[in-house]
Amino acid sequence: MQSILILDFGGQYSHLIARRVREFSVYCEIFPCQKAAEGVDRLKPVGIILTGGPASVYEKGAPVLDKNVFTLGIPILGICYGGQLMAEACGGKVASAGKSEYGKTETEFVTDSALFQDVQSPGVTWMSHTDSVANLPAGFLSVARTVNCANAAFENAAKKLYALQFHPEVTHTQNGGLILKNFLYNVCGCTGDWAMGDYIEQAVRDCAERIGDGKVVLGLSGGVDSSVAAALLARAVGKRLTCIFVDHGLMRKNEGDEIEAAFKNRDLNFIRIDAEKRFLTRLDGVTDPESKRKIIGEEFVAVFEEEAKKIGAKFLAQGTIYPDVIESGGGAKKGGGHGGNKADTIKSHHNVGGLPERLGLTLVEPLRLLFKDEVRKIGFLLGLPEELVMRQPFPGPGLAIRVVGEITREKLDILREADAVFCGEIKRAGLDRDIHQYFAVLTPVKSVGVMGDHRTYDYLLALRGVVTGDFMTADFARIPYDILAAASSRIVNEVRGVNRIVYDITTKPPSTIEWE
Ligand code: XMP
């Protein structure tokens, strides 16, 4: 099987590159830039991609790359920082452009470059840089330009060295996918000999090898990620897997019973643990979102450790996926594999950032490098039912991060009822497939209203609906007013404690999907 080696310099989009390469049916792995030699040795790649990164090439401590990589005769594509490193290593000069070039930028391409075959010129690219290549190394040609950047792409076709100042992996770059595909197929000679099914085989093999004849407990939440992880592990270790559903009392209306009904009668060891009291006791009076997440993570692990002890399991499996890792500031350290370099912490996803430093169990996370839509593809390939695979995501900390501020049982009940009405209206309108995640959020704000002849002073509830491909970026869903009106009217009439409703019209970024 042909492989592409992706060397990570700490860019926000490094795993998006990997995901695009997989979309073109080519196998790839990400290695931190410091491990270039090991990556080359292990993968014997037909091509190398250097990612972007936050540093400047001349900065003290900026990540570097062994210059020998450029003389191996392996085709290389440098993206942004990776391209600047290539220019510098081959004798060119990088300089601060003085002014940052950020956002969508009109770009002219030299379309007889192998990279830009069938790419329309001019087109829009996504730029995010301050430095750029001022002088090209000998033997290199500029093959794209913008108003502010004369070397928006450059190449030495004879040596198969290519560089882009813009980010082809981001959907904002028109034809970005095609540019990557051109590198893979036109330059590296890839034939597309890899498929998602191969990922399953490899993950099953890796898990079986790792777990040996041991036992494993898996945190099953009923969502797509943990269900797919359970199906993979069941293939790897059969009945030595026990799925544990921890009902923390932070689930949506009727959800606990639905999950139990869905999994109890399958050919699986399934245990439901009623842990509402211990979770709510620990969360009592806690208002800070990160503290809530940490507490919930710790409590989950405590339950898993207790159960693992009873069963004699040494491994803890989780359905962690890549956005959980990257937004929790994840890197190469936890969970094995080659995660790349560390990114900034946005939220500690309970199944990543909430884990104690000294976990008494070995972690197994077979989906750690995948995006949600890739996990869904695997779910279908494993034969899981559509209603499970297409379920909208629900965060591990549950309604704890949708009751803003202090959590009480009363607030949770209000939110459960309101959320059920909103979700019911979305489904009734047939919008549940078009809106990728929709839910209600209970705020701590109270406002004055009037009901009948009486003054009310009740909670402000927010409704949120988003459309998204990978949950890393999202737009708010344009839900028709009639449907919002129906949901609003039903909620204020049917749910005691809410007298005002707003719809969240922010995108991610700068907001996030969940409120906490
Ligand atoms: P944000 O709020 O970060 O959410 O834009 C992105 C996606 O991740 C889900 N989410 C979580 N999933 N554990 C999870 O398993 C968590 O702690 C967690 N926090 C957020 C969120 O629902 C959205 O789909």
Proportion of beta-strand residues: 15-25%
Structural class: alpha/beta
Number of helices: 14
> What quaternary form is this?
single chain
Strand order of the largest sheet: 2-1-3-4-9-8-7-5-6
> Largest sheet, described in full?
9 strands, mixed
Query: Termini separation (Å)?
Result: 43 Å
Radius of gyration equals 25 Å
The ligands bound in this entry are: xanthosine-5'-monophosphate
Q: Pick out the low-confidence regions.
A: 331-339
Topology:
Blueprint: E1 3-8, H1 14-23, E2 27-32, H2 36-43, E3 47-50, E4 76-79, H3 81-89, E5 93-109, E6 123-135, E7 141-145, E8 153-156, E9 161-164, H4 176-187, H5 196-211, E10 216-219, H6 224-237, E11 241-247, H7 255-264, E12 269-274, H8 276-283, H9 289-311, E13 315-317, H10 322-327, E14 362-364, H11 372-381, H12 386-389, H13 409-428, E15 437-451, E16 454-467, E17 475-476, H14 481-494, E18 498-503
Parallel strand pairs: 1-2, 1-3, 3-4, 4-9, 10-11, 10-13, 11-12, 13-14, 16-18
Antiparallel strand pairs: 5-6, 5-7, 7-8, 8-9, 15-16, 16-17
Helix pairs in contact: 5-6, 5-11, 6-11, 8-9, 13-14
The chain binds xanthosine-5'-monophosphate.
Characterise the protein shown here.
By secondary structure, the chain is an alpha/beta fold. 32% of the residues lie in helices and 24% in strands. It contains 14 helices and 18 strands. The chain has helices spanning 14-23, 36-43, 81-89, 176-187, 196-211, 224-237, 255-264, 276-283, 289-311, 322-327, 372-381, 386-389, 409-428, 481-494, and strands at 3-8, 27-32, 47-50, 76-79, 93-109, 123-135, 141-145, 153-156, 161-164, 216-219, 241-247, 269-274, 315-317, 362-364, 437-451, 454-467, 475-476, 498-503. The strands form three sheets. Strands 2-1-3-4-9-8-7-5-6 form a nine-stranded mixed sheet, sandwiched between helices. It has a five-stranded parallel sheet with strand order 12-11-10-13-14, sandwiched between helices. Strands 15, 16, 17 and 18 form a four-stranded mixed sheet that branches. Helix 5 (196-211) crosses helix 11 (372-381). The protein is globular, with a radius of gyration of 25 Å. The two termini are 43 Å apart.
